[in-house]
Design a protein that fits this description.
single chain; Arc Repressor Mutant, subunit A; 2 domains; 43% helix; globular
Length: 228
């Protein structure tokens, strides 16, 4: 069975565009034209990816993202936001809320396809290795997609999980932003003006708590380091 894609967008033309772009990638595309229907279908279908427009007629897309991340049924589903090209405020807020990536409207077909493929490759990478990562009180079970801190389970998104894995595998090493974008997002070059990495580091610090947050350090203009 193909991957299930849920597009939450009030424009049917966007749903059809996504369906056409991904039809050769063994994907089945579903549409929801309101936020309420989108939330319902998210729990019903448990799709492999949600493409979420931030400008919906009934519920703000940011609030939908928040709801999806707080629900036990949908917290781990990858989310790509669709937003206006110049709406950097919404992009930053969406990433901080838990979206994995964003694509600006109107989107380029090749870029859209490449971003979705890269996201699926990262998901496959996460679930393929059969090992356990540890760093002091942090235990990561990669096959089970679980993280515990002092025995307490921490809920992370797919990207936050991968980011933490990369930081732990390279603890005490200064990792450049370009390296992290390549390892976590699959980008060969650092996206210009992107808030993605900054937002995910911020989310990771908040979820892991002050004892870990203080050990994820930033060297301005150079990158990030997890101190053991």
């Amino acid at each position: 069975m193909g991957r299930r894609i849920l597009v939450i967008d009030d424009e049917q033309s966007v749903v059809e565009s996504v369906r056409m772009i991904l039809q050769d990638e063994d994907c089945i595309t579903y549409g929801a034209q309101t936020g309420k229907k989108g939330l319902s279908k998210s729990k019903e279908l448990h799709p492999d990816l949600i493409i979420l427009d931030l400008n919906l007629p009934d519920i703000d897309g940011i609030k939908i993202c928040e709801h999806l991340r707080k629900s036990n049924k949908t917290f781990s589903i990858p989310i790509i936001m669709l937003t206006a090209r110049d709406n950097t405020k919404d992009i930053k807020k969406g990433l901080e809320t838990g979206a994995d990536d964003y694509i600006t409207k109107p989107f380029d077909v090749d870029e859209f396809s490449a971003r979705v493929k890269a996201l699926f490759r990262r998901i496959e990478y996460i679930h393929t290795p059969s090992d356990i990562l540890t760093c002091d009180d942090i235990v990561i079970n990669i096959p089970n997609f679980s993280v515990t801190l002092k025995g307490k389970e921490i809920s992370l998104t797919q990207k936050e999980f991968k980011l933490l894995c990369v930081l732990i595998k390279n603890k005490n090493k200064l990792l450049s932003q370009q390296f992290l974008y390549q390892e976590v997002w699959g980008f060969k070059e650092q996206p210009y003006g992107s808030f993605t990495l900054q937002a995910h580091i911020s989310n990771l610090r908040e979820k892991m708590g002050p004892s870990i947050a203080s050990r994820i350090t930033v060297i301005e203009g150079k990158g990030y380091k997890l101190k053991s």
